[in-house]
Please model this.
Amino acid sequence: MPTCECPQCKKRAYARKEKEQDEALLSCPDCHFHRVDNNVRYNISLKAFCNNCAHPIVVERFMQKEAVEELHLTCPGCKHKECYRPKVTPIRISQSVNSGCTDPWFGCELWLQAPFRSEVFWANNYEHLDYMRAYISAGLRERNMREFYTLVEKLPNFIKSAKNREKLVKLIDKLKKK
Model:
């Protein structure tokens, strides 16, 4: 469960995905902020002609939170008002869109992040931070020949570099106190 910055009070909040309901929840224990999102957005499009003057009417709205059954529009040519039924395409937002420094569902900044030289060091939660500390402070890092990649093999080079070990461990210890 990622810990992130509450959009309301800027203190620590928690984002999690509920598998049963297919919803993401954001909650802050300090200010009791609460947000629910089902991670579905809608692309709404309409290509039609005004029934009064035949002027083309084109509407394209992307990544809308709610689907609409009807659009009440005014023709730009003759100002005639009419209802249209748009094409609505649901799109599921995936976690792969996440840049790393925000939670994958709400886009809130991660609680456990800090600048490190020209990079940003981050962790999803305190367990992730402990795992990163154990890896970074390890004296011997063996490579096993295997067919799959682990989290460690996908880490950026500045984290894997031996010359950054001491400073990264200090940074992690500072983040653990946050």
